[in-house]
Design goal:
Blueprint (H helix, E strand, L loop, with lengths): L3 E7 L2 H11 L5 E7 L2 H13 L4 E4 L1 H10 L4 E3 L4 H12 L4 E6 L1 H14 L4 E4 L6 H10 L2 E6 L1 H9 L3 E4 L4 H33 L4 E5 L5 E5 L5 H17 L4 E7 L2 E11 L5 E13 L6 E4 L7 H4 L9 H11 L5 E4 L6 H12 L5 E5 L5 H13 L4 E5 L6 H11 L4 H4 L2 E5 L3 H6 L5 H7 L2 E4 L10 H16 L5 E2 L1 H9 L5 H15 L4 E2 L1 H10 L17 H15 L4 H8 L3 H11 L1
Parallel strand pairs: 1-2, 1-3, 3-4, 5-6, 5-7, 7-8, 15-18, 15-19, 16-17, 17-18, 20-21
Antiparallel strand pairs: 9-10, 9-13, 11-12, 12-13, 14-16
């Protein structure tokens, strides 16, 4: 068995001699002794700690200082009751008044011995070595002649002409310290071995993990080396939610092309300090190859009340009430509204109200395919609390709609997951034109929130434009602060086709073009004139000498140009599937 490396910092030479005399009786120790007091003792301890000391012994104030500056255990060589009796008896043999002076660690034990001996010696406690000189000056004026104390006190008293008596530790005190040092060392060795075993067990657990403190620092971790820093940064951002909520949570996040499923909860140490524990596993999904699928964990909703509602919208008073009512029912919520009316923002708000702590999994019907749905299902199997947003599921092929219906029909699905979907048309219209499965329309369409178009919200125009102006000023470094009434009337009368999206784009242009703090009607008229208004009369398509297929192809090509190639809008306007649009486009090539 290896010997215990023990360093003894002896405040006086006599203690060094006693330690060396006794050391032969303790072969389990490899003892090194240095004579140093207070800060000199700290410096010596720090140097010897670097060289590998297992445990340090010292005495009184020196032991207290060393303990604050090294990480190895520090054992104090006490002054025993027998030591006090011996030294007080020695002081009583001198003529004149006697006093004991020292830190609390010395004087506390002396009080009870004084009472037991019924000795007239006076005892004075100092909290700092800087107090010593002033106290000795006072004792000098009060005719004290004998001073008992530690090394510093004894040396200072001797300089000032007192008879000084050094409080020394006897053999029994040193033996007691040796025994305590061995006991502490054996206990710490057991703890270290237990920790080594625990680390070996954790290293072989088939799961990644990390434990973070309140400052975001990692106490323990097992993470893939190539993503460790990035994962820890994400976990540090998430740790605040863990400290605010004691219950266990599940979350998801995407890093590069990988999706991580996380179980997180608070843990406490023996002192009651809390830590955030994360247990991570990789979802069997490669997001790089999965279109139409996105994961987010937004901490706060987008500023829906201003950007979408306006500050005091009378047109949307019932929307918040429906959000609160529906999110407590464990039912799918359908948002219906034209393009650009704020359906995505409202879906995010519903998640925040109904499932704030849950990750947000979005399936976009415009780009998702069968592989997307299979991976959508895999992710949900790893996280049974994720909030789900089905964005325009009517744009999925009918086969993929059937696959989605089977996923949603899993027993208890809506109990586990908050589900929000959005359509640009009523589900009944989509079903009647064979763009939506009737069963899927019934499942998703019972609890609805309708968002009105911008044309139906003339009273919100000033608030909306003011908000968009403010955002544009910040983005472009402009100082546009107002819009004249006539310019506002032009905006209200305009036939908005993509609603808030179009209004935001138009406002950006108005701010960029404005050469004064107020937006004028002339600039508004010019910008609106450049906007594509789909309700304007169009040139008729000549039909003479053309087959029906030719006319259909020409109509499709015109709508594609008007919709600037957005296949979802083309499909929605013409009432045909995107695959039909693509088929006709290929014929033209």
């Amino acid at each position: 068995m290896s010997r215990i490396k023990m360093t003894v910092i002896a405040p006086y030479e006599g203690l060094k001699g006693l330690v060396l005399t006794l050391s032969g009786q303790y072969p389990q120790f490899d003892i090194q002794v240095v004579v140093a007091n207070l800060w000199q003792g700290v410096q010596a301890a720090e140097a010897l700690h670097v060289s590998g000391a297992d445990i340090i012994l010292s005495r009184g104030g020196t032991a207290e200082l060393i303990e604050r500056h090294v990480s190895v255990p520090v054992i104090s060589i006490d002054i025993s009751g027998y030591d006090y009796i011996r030294m007080i008896t020695l002081a009583s043999g001198f003529s004149g008044k006697s006093a004991m002076v020292g830190f609390r660690s010395i004087t506390e034990g002396a009080q009870s011995i004084k009472k037991l001996m019924d000795n007239p010696i006076d005892i004075f406690t100092i909290a700092d070595s800087e107090e010593l000189s002033a106290l000795l000056d006072r004792l000098k004026r009060e005719n004290y002649q004998v001073i008992l104390g530690d090394v510093v006190t004894s040396e200072e008293a001797h300089k000032m002409g007192f008879t000084s008596v050094l409080l020394t530790s006897g053999e029994e005190s040193v033996r007691k310290a040796f025994s305590e040092a061995e006991r502490v060392y054996r206990y710490l060795q057991k703890v270290r071995l237990d920790n080594i075993l625990e680390k070996q067990v954790l290293a072989n657990v088939p799961m990644y993990y990390a434990v973070l403190d309140r400052d975001g620092g990692a106490l323990f971790q097992k993470l893939p080396a190539d993503q460790s820093d990035a994962i820890l940064k994400r976990l540090a951002d998430e740790a605040g939610n863990v400290f605010q909520n004691e219950s266990k949570r599940q979350s998801l996040f995407q890093l590069d092309d990988k999706v991580w499923s996380i179980s997180e909860n608070q843990i406490r140490d023996g002192n009651g300090r809390t830590y955030a524990a994360f247990y991570l596993s990789l979802c069997p999904v490669e997001m790089k190859t999965v279109p139409g699928l996105a994961i987010s964990s937004p901490k706060t909703p987008s500023d829906f009340s201003i950007s979408t509602f306006g500050r005091n919208s009378n047109y949307l008073k019932g929307t918040y009430e429906k959000v609160k009512e529906y999110t407590g029912l464990h039912v799918p919520v359908l948002i219906v509204g034209e393009i650009g009316t704020g359906k995505d923002a409202l879906a995010e708000l519903i998640r925040f109200v109904g499932a704030e702590a849950s990750p947000f999994l979005t399936l976009d019907g415009e780009t998702a395919n069968s592989a997307s749905l299979m991976n959508f299902q895999k992710i949900l199997r790893t996280n049974d609390s994720a909030a789900v947003y089905l964005r325009q599921p009517c744009l999925l092929s009918l086969d993929n709609q059937r696959l989605l219906l089977s996923i949603l029909s899993d027993p208890g699905f809506f109990e586990r997951h908050l589900v929000v979907s959005s359509f640009c048309e009523l589900p009944e219209s989509l079903v009647s034109s064979d763009r939506l499965l009737e069963a899927l329309g019934r499942l998703l369409g019972k609890y609805r929130i309708r968002l009105p178009s911008l044309r139906e919200r003339p009273g919100d125009m000033r608030d909306l434009v003011s908000n968009y102006m403010n955002e544009a000023n910040f983005q472009f470094g402009k100082q546009v602060v107002a819009i004249e009434d006539e310019a506002l009337r032009l905006l209200v009368k305009f036939n908005w086709t993509t609603n808030l999206e179009q209004l935001r784009r138009v406002t950006d242009q108005l701010v960029l073009l404005a050469d004064e703090p107020t937006i004028r009607s002339g600039v508004v008229a010019r910008v609106l004139g450049e906007e594509s208004d789909l309700n304007q009369p169009r040139e008729d398509i000549p039909i003479a000498g053309k087959s029906l297929d030719d006319l259909v192809d020409e109509i499709i090509q015109r709508v594609i140009r008007e919709e600037k190639g957005n296949m979802a809008r083309v499909s929605s306007r013409l009432g045909i599937s995107r695959s039909t649009v693509w088929r006709h486009m290929k014929k033209q090539k």
